[in-house]
Design a protein that fits this description.
The complex is a heterodimer of chains A (about 475) and B (about 90). Chain A is of the alpha/beta class. Chain A is built from 18 helices and six strands. Chain B is flat and about 50 Å long. Classes of the chains: A alpha/beta (about 475), B mainly alpha (about 90). Chains A and B meet through helix 1, helix 2, helix 3, helix 4 and helix 8 of A and helix 1, helix 2, helix 3 and helix 4 of B.
Amino acid sequence: MIMNTANSFLIIGAAVLFILGIRLLSSPKTARYGNLVAAAGMLVALVSLHGPDGHFIWTRGWDLNYALIIIGILIGLATGAAGAYSVKMTSMPQMVALFNGLGGGAAALVAGLEFVKGLHMPLAPPWFIAAFMLFATLIGSLSFSGSIIAYLKLEGKLEKPLTFPGQNLVNSLILVLILGLCGWLAGWDTNPSAAGGFNLMFILALLFGVAMVMPIGGADMPVVISLLNSFTGLAVAADGFAIHNLAMVVAGTLVGSSGTLLTLLMCRAMNRPVSNVLFGAFGSGNTGASSVTGSAHQAVKPIQADEAAVLLSYARQVVIVPGYGMAVAQAQHSVRELSQELAQRGVDVRFAIHPVAGRMPGHMNVLLAEADVSYELLSEMEAVNPGMEHVDVCLVIGANDVVNPAAREEKSSPIYGMPIIEADHAKTVIVMKRSLAAGFAGIENHLFYKSNTRMLFGDAKASLNALVAQVRAG
Amino acid sequence: MDTNILFIFILAVFVGVEVISKVPSMLHTPLMSGTNAIHGIILFGGILALADASTPLAQALGFVAVIFGSANVFGGFLVTDRMLQMFKKRK
């Protein structure tokens, strides 16, 4: 690796800024600042960008490639900024999936170009460099195609998980084929036929990304996006190894390892091993059993907005449990209004956020923050559950699986053992929902049939506005 | 193989795990989005590949890689900032 001293210092500086940035991102008070610090690290790394000959890339003369670089950066800047500023807060997870896919695609292209260039060299690079390029191509392209499938699923364009018998076997066969091709290609010579094998591997990797994500239900997309995010990080790190770019190795590895931990934390919150998320085809095959044992014959007790408003106004403690239904109904501003009205009447209002509520961990926090709810009112599941018996009214807005007592009571349930917000322990539970339909996991919710539960049917936003009006009038 | 780079890789693995082990779940989405932007450093790989491209095909693919990487890095940081600017205390 040829590097001059100034360059080394710049890269060390960039690495420190990345680490500091991620660190600051982990506290609500400093998070925004942390993002800017990481962006500053990116700028420093950009300045330090040097070619394989050790010269700064920016000092080379103008030619077509240089012009293409500038144009490409500007196009990416324009589309990225347009996407970032136009996306609705409810569609945030999709946007992250899309950006992640683009990064994965770029990582695969960079590795592929480097590999094909190596085929025409008189002296082949050593096998481990080839292995890094193949790894980056494989992981980058499956992250690209997998992220696009995840995006389509979250957009609701591919609602149903696609499963067929022997699917895991077929997927394993594709993977074995890919790995076999990689093994053969890693021992490449200056062999022109290797290009054909490489292209085949590239296509199979794209296909594998699709095949891997297709059978996974929409409820598990957060885990998938987090996993693909860490995959892209690893692909970038492998690219960095292959082209001797230290900044890429450090940044890619940081993302790869922190992303892997984040994925595991998310799975732990759902009490499911990663393997179960990826290969379990959850929410498609095993829902039949629980609907048989479900309590469809029991009646639910509906409630009207005026009565619900009275219950809320005269409560001492109210806990609001938001879920994806709140996001869909765009009801976060109405929720904030209701909480303010109640607070003015002296009611102690808190929000209980389940770690996997919504389509992504933190999804609810982002939405409520957008609606100007102070993050100090937001409590995590562990903080709320012990005091739930003293809560007068627990208002569940569009949340379903995360408050389903089946996770505690019914051993045969697919979500058995998942930590839930114990809404049913409150004195009264008001569930706002459009219908009695099952949640994303496809399981019937026992909470709806409990004796202390009242169902407030209708669109969450309309119901909330009615509640606000009633509380204000009362 | 240069073992220094491997050494740095191993250390970075541990730093990455350590640094996020205390993140509250409310910040998971911004954190994912922020790290997503950091792997946008692949833009540099695209720039280097395009700078060296000698065939039209390599130029075209390198150009696409630069666009993808640039959208990843700029879009990633901007969207994270947009999320985080809402995490402010109510006055």
